[in-house]
Structure formats: structure tokens, C-alpha cells
Please model this.
Amino acid sequence: MAIGIATLAVVLELGDIWITAQLPPSPYTPLPLQPEDMAGTAFPIFGAILVYHRPRLVIGWLLSLGGLAAAVNIVSANAAWLAGSHPARWPIVALSWQLFMFLCGLLLPLLYPNGRLPSPRWRWLIIAAPVLSAAYWFGTPEWRPLLDQAYRPVLAVAFLSLVLRFRKSDEAERRQILWLLVALPFVIVPWIIGDPVWWVSTLTIPLIPAAIAVAILRYRLFGIDTLISRALIGIALAIVIVGVYFAGVAASSVLLSGVDQVAGLGAALLAGVFFQPMRKLVQRGVDRMLYGSTGDPAALAEEIKRRLQQAEPADGLLATLEVLREGLAVTGAAVRLDGATTTSGDLTHAAREVPLTWHGEPVGTLLIGPPGKRRFPAAHDERVLATLTPYLADAAHAVRLTTALQRSRERILTAREEERRRLRRDLHDGLGQSLTGMAMSINLARMTMRDSPDTAEELLGRLRTGMAEVSDDIRTLVYGLRPPALDELGLAGAAEQLLDAPVRTEGELAGLPAATEVAAYRILQEAITNARKHAAARTIEVSLVREQDRLRVSVSDDGCGLPLRPQAGVGLGSMRERAAELGGTCTVRPAEGGGTVVHADLPL
Model:
């Protein structure tokens, strides 16, 4: 239906072109068409586009029907002139014009951009327009000029609703309203100025439906604040440069009469000298007007760099959040990181969540509170977020590293103290008691050696057995500190002893760091034990590959493989922790042909 309306309007406009060609040229405009011609063509076309994409939104239907009313109005008016009659005598001319003003001049600003009134109180304005129209048609002719004057404030109030809606809307609706508010001056200003430039409004009328279509369908793809900023800067620079140029020409003509070419060249050079400083000054003023004193994303980035240089790594995230909160003018901002939340300001609820990514790795979530009052928040927020989010991701990653380092230190300290306590208990309760008993046996044997040699012989035999037990205890303690097989056989030999089969090796495995050897051996030991005990593997393959800066350990088996929902136990967690302590990784994954593969990457 909307496409049919647009087609009908275009056909009417084509007919109007033929009618206009039969009439004498208009003395009021140099163009061969009227504003109603442009509205009758552009409004239905863009209205059909909106209806096609958003059929339930009333805005597209208002543009379509309003544009058709404009097309009917201009065709009937020119047809009246062609017939030798005055358009005022044809009721369809006034009726179509009032319908166009009601649809596009009253309902469109009241319902834009979401198809709903700003509040129920505005329904009285919609009722007032038909009442005035009825009074116009059924009242006396003497009242019609007064009713025409009364209709204009109604339209002005309707457009005022856009400003009131802008102050109460969210960020998305503000950007949509801005598109229409930016397009309106290009139509209204030439119309207000009047002769001899009023006809420019005819050419700029399509900007209104085009801005509405962009605002509803594609408003997120364009930065309206950037458009306004560049337009203001361009206008200001043009005024300044032209003023400097003419001032230079005027001064030179007074001081250097008769050398106009030199005067013009000097004015041009003077304008060029003033251009760059003036551009920076105007840019700063426009940014300050649009965004406030902290609105420049580049300045915010510099402020973050300065604070990060002065803050500790653990405090850098909070400093970055403070700058972001000031730049966005929100009540609060926070970063949720590994179950903990770092907050700046008052964040009662999050109006928006933005994931933080550091080199493709998710590091946390940015929580942004509700915005404060500001003129152009939406597009500016996107610029600020695009500029500052990488700094937030870096700061969040630094906090994660700092936290991981602190936890690692705590684990190392805890493990060291636990190992010391275990050694003390083993030495005191086991080895210490054994040595004390051996000393008592020696004293007793000395006392009974002369009187009872048999008893002394029995005591010395027990002493020999006790010494063997002490040796076993010492060997167990030493083995707990470092497997003796590593010192006796090396890593490859120790792996073959664990596997009881040959292993595949690449590179020189001699001279590895002691911590790397122990970590690799313990990972091999746990992986082989798991394969035999839990996976019932028949074949286990081990490979040790030394590269320039790392050792790669791999254990693959043909066992039953991992369960559908594997749960990390003590053994799997121990392997990962041993690799992480060295700054490496350990992964456990299913093998392609069945079974399990344990792969550890240990830096040297």
C-alpha cells in the first residue's frame, strides 16, 4: 500500500510537471517547481522505505499520506490556475493542504521517533487541530484569516515537543531526534529570511524525510555529534577567513591605493596564517559546547596515560574508571573482573555492559551507570568508549596479572611452609625417634657386652636393622625433594623408567633447569598413572621435545578417554599448577582416534 501511495504521488507530480509547463513562469522562484512538488515526491518515497522496513511504525505512514496530500495540493492548485480559476475556489486545495499540515506538521513531530506521544496531555493538541479545521470550513469567511493565524501556534507547540522529548529521552532516542533537528534549519531558515532566498527551502525539503529515515533505520552507523561539530567548525572558519580577507583588502586599499593585486595577495596570506590557530580554537570551543570541559576523547586518553604512569598497577584500573566516568558524565562506572568489582562513583544499577577484550582474550566486563544531563551523550559516548576501552582492557589485564602474581606468591609461601612443616614432622617423629632409639641400643650394648655377649649381639643386630630403616626414611625424604632418577638417569631415562618403555626425544635434554626437570617428571608421572589406573590404556606414548626456549612434554594413550563432563581432580589440578608455576601451560584433551592427550608446554 505504501509503495502504491508513493507511485500515485509520483504520477501526480509528473502530471504537475506537464501542467506547470503550460503556465507562465513564477515571479517568486527561479525554480520550475514548488515546495509542494518536492514534498509530494520525497515524503512518499522515504515513507514507503520506512513502511517496508518498519510496517508497524506510524512514522512511515505519516510521511506517505502527508506526501500524497502535498502532491494532491499542488496538482489541484496548478490545475485551477490552468483552468482560469483561483485555487481558493477549489475546496480540495485547502483540504489537502490542511491534511498535509495535520499529518506532517502536527502528528509527525508529536509522534516522532517511536510513534507514541510524549505524554497523554498532548492529546488535546491533536484534538485542537481538527476543531480549528472544522471552524475554518463551517465558520464565516471573516473568521478564516484569524483561524489561519491560530493554527500556526499549534504547529509551533508540536515542534516544541521534540525539544521536551529530547530532554527526557534515552540516548538512542536523543540521537534520532537530533537527526531531525539538524535537518529542520536547512528548511526553516531560508523560509524565514524570505526573498530573495526562500526558494532554497524547496531544494532542502528532502533532507527532512531523509533524516527521519536515517534516524530510524541507520542512526547507530553515523555520529550526529560529529556532523554538527564539523558543520559548526566549517561555518565558523568560513566566517573568520572571509572576515580576515575582506579586512585585509579594506586596510590595504586604504594604505596601498592602486595596488589591489598586492592587497588581495596579502589578505590571502594573512587569512592562511590565521587558519590553523583559528581552527584549533573553534574546535576546542565546539567540543566544549557539545560535550563539556571533559568531552574530548583524545584529551581523556592523555589523562588516562598520565594517571597510569603515576598509579600502581593495582590502582590503574580505578584511575582509568574515574577518567571514563568523567568523560561519559555518568553516575558511576565499574569493571567486573574474576568475581570482584572495582567501582568508581555511585553505580546503583548498570545501564549498559561492555565486554573487555585484551588481545582476543576476555578479561572482564565494563558496567556503565545511567548518564547525567548533557546535550549530546549518545554518539559522544561511542567515541569515548571506542577510545578508552583498550586502556580499560590493559588496566584490567594488569590487575589480573597482579592478582595472579600475588596468589602465586601466596601459594609458593604456603607450599614452602607446608613442606618445612612436613620435613620437621618427618625428621622429628620418624628419623629423630629412630636415631634416639639407636643411641639407646648402642649404650645398652656397651653395658652388656662383657657380662652378656649374646644380648649385646642381639642388640647390635636390631641396631643394624634400625639403621636400614633410617636409610629408607632418608631416601624417602630425599626422593620427596627431588626424584633420584633424574640425577641418576636424566629426564629421558627417568621417563623410560616410569613408562617401562622407550620414549621419543628431540633436542638436547641434558642441562635442563632443575625446576623444569622436576615439573616435567611429575607431570609425566601423574599422566602415566592416570592412563594406567583410570583409562585402562594398553599403549602409552611419551615424547620430550626441547626447543630453543621451551620443553614440550606429551603423553598420549589409547584408553577410554575423558568423560563427557570431566571434573578436574587433584591430579589434573596438580599438573596444571606445576606448569603454571613456571609460566607454562598444561592441557588435557581427547585424542583424535580415541584416548587422551596430555600436553605440557614448559618455558626454560
